[in-house]
Amino acid sequence: MREQPTDQWELGPAALRHSLLARRDWLRVGALTIAAQAVPASWLAAPWLAGPSSGAALGAEAAAGAKPSSEGSSNSGAGTGSARARSVVVLWMAGGVTHIDSFDPKPQAPVEVRGVLGDIATSLPGVRFCETMPRLAEMAHELAVIRNFSHDSDDHLLSQVYTLSGRKVNQNQLFTEPNVGSVVSRLHGPRNGLPAYIAVPGITRPGPPPHNLFVSGWLGSQHVPYCLGGLPEQPDFAVGEKLYDPPAEADESLSPASTTLGADVPLSRLSRRVELRQSFDQALRTLDRQDAMVAAESRYQDALRLLTTPSVRSAFDLSTERPEVRERYGRTKLGGRCLMARRLVEAGARFILVDYGYDPDYGNVWDNHNAPVQNHPPIQKMVFRGYHLAGMDKAFAALLGDLKERGLLETTLVVFLTEFGRTPKINANGGRDHWGKAGSIFLAGAKTRVGQVIGDTGPQAAAPTGHRYSPADVLATTYAALGIDSRRVIHDFQDRPRLILEEGRVIPEV
Q1: Whose CA is closest to 388, among 399, 398, 377?
Q2: Do 148 and 454 touch, CB atoms closer than 8 A?
Q3: Parallel/antiparallel/unpaired status of strands 144-149 and 452-454
Q4: N or C: which end of the chain has fewer CB within 10 A?
């Protein structure tokens, strides 16, 4: 028997299957129209749109919840049971954050490995971070740092898909596997009027050419993230001349257009139109649906929830924050995005992905080869810029501290993720290259066993000296915190059974 949605805003079978075409002609509600921000572009890249799948099958899948696992609780350590986390915040730094120059310094290594940066003490006896991480060093007792994060790919796209989904892919499968947030959306659904999976802002496009990897894959497009940034104005980060030293401070709007009514549409008029919209469900019961329409309908419902719930709309307004709080996070893009994540957790959001990587102003922020075309300084100077490690240290520390002060960290799992580290040896241009063999990430909150560093990468940060943890292991741990068995079987949009993860186990230390 299929699980049924429990959220009062979740679509019923008839509404989800039979409602789009006539509605969008009747409901032109300013920024709420289907053509507006409410429809993200991620379904455009979905490979199944050109395939033979029947609209009826897609509609049937969209209307239903997941099937329970037929495997019971035997999951090879995948984790199941009651949830420790009410919310999850993934700090997604796409591009490959340097581990040696942040959480895994090697002061005794040769200069071509360690460079010129120093290391500093942390709040944990005997544990040292690079000097670029002073704020996070002071709160290392709140972190479970994983230094043995490792896998076998140095390719950005393959590694990012693996890290976001926990599933290994080839170049033809970049859009087939659902993000972890999409699985959470499928199993748990929206809450408190907020979409189940929110990307802040969801505009990173690795490349070139640019690829949108924020996808729901075989789960169907109704589970794509709700991206606050909508469609990026400049999806190809490589286009346009970048300043050598661009300003770190940025006043970025993160309020989705769908939270704003047009001047000619008062809320009372919207309510009447919603009633009219619902009346057309009966006339559209036999309409065959395309997956793109399911996606549009899902975004419509997300936009409607945001628009008609004042407390939810206010969550997106950073201007209500006290100036000292805004300063604590840093008036940078990353600082604002982390602050937005805290506000969304406070408002009851279930899964938030803070997206910061390839940027129209800064280029490929973390992909620091220092190739001439990048117009970057050497990596060990780059790290002190406010939009690089210096800004990350400030924003992450502020987020963790703010969540703790507000009593939210106990029920919020925070996961810092990047697809890989950087080469131990600094290259001839003063940069570091891709390095899947080793990287550093951390977990915090939600009763994680913090105050520890897990793993070791030897004298030169080249590779874990013992056991290593893969992206699949990290996501198995994340699912377990939400009470989800990662070896559970769910069904795709064509009703085929799939394992949430085909590999990976909960990290026992955390």
Answers
A1: 377
A2: yes
A3: parallel
A4: N
Which CA distances in Å does 65 have to 3, 10, 122, 243, 428? 5, 11, 45, 48, 53
Alpha-carbon span 183 to 221, nearest angstrom = 12
Beta-bridged to residue 458, according to DSSP, are none
Q: Name the residue among 320, 211, 299 with its Cα closest to residue 256.
A: 299
Closest CA to 201 of 365, 344, 407: 344
Half-sphere exposure (CA, 13 Å, Cβ side) for 108? Answer: 3
Alpha-carbon distances, residue 113 vs 117, 418, 426, 453, 459 (angstroms): 10, 21, 6, 21, 10
CA atoms within 13 A of residue 76's CA, in its CB half-sphere: 11
Residue 176, φ and ψ in degrees, nearest 5: -90, -20
Under 8 Å CB-to-CB from 82, ≥6 apart: which residues?
A: 483
CA distance 192 to 135: 33
Instruction: Write out 415-470 in H/E/C secondary structure.
Output: EEECCCEECCCCCCCCCCCEECCCEEEEEECCCCCCCEEECCCCCCCCCCCCCCEC
Residue 187 phi, psi dihedral angles, 5° rounding? -85, -35
Give the Cα separation of 287 and 278 in Å (integer): 15
DSSP H or E run through 297: helix 291-308
- Determine if the peptide bond prior to 201 is cis (ω within 30°): yes
Q: 394, 505, 396, 485: which is closest to 442 by C-alpha?
A: 396
C-beta separation of 373 from 367 below 8 A: no
Helices (H), 47-171: 55-63, 111-114, 134-138, 156-165
Residues 329 and 393: their CA atoms lie apart, in Å, by: 9
**What angle (nearest 5°) sits at the alpha carbon of residue 220, between those of residues 190 and 35?**
75
Tens-place pLDDT, residues 25-43: 333 333 333 333 333 333 3
Cα–Cα distance between 169 and 192 in angstroms, integer?
A: 34
Q: Which of 359, 444, 465, 357 has the alpha carbon at shortest distance from 397?
A: 444
User: What does the pLDDT look like over 272-330, one tens digit per residue?
Assistant: 555 555 555 544 444 445 566 566 666 667 767 776 677 778 899 999 999 999 999 99
Give dist(CA 197, CA 440) in Å, integer: 25
Task: Write the CATH number of the domain with boundaries 13-499.
Answer: 3.40.720
DSSP 3-state percent helix, strand, coil across the chain (nearest 5) = 35, 10, 55
The H-or-E segment that residue 307 falls in is helix 291-308
Q: Name which of 76, 149, 179 is nearest 417 in CA terms.
A: 149
Res. 56 pLDDT band, cuts 50 70 90:
very low
Determine the length of the chain. Answer: 510
pTM for this entry:
0.81
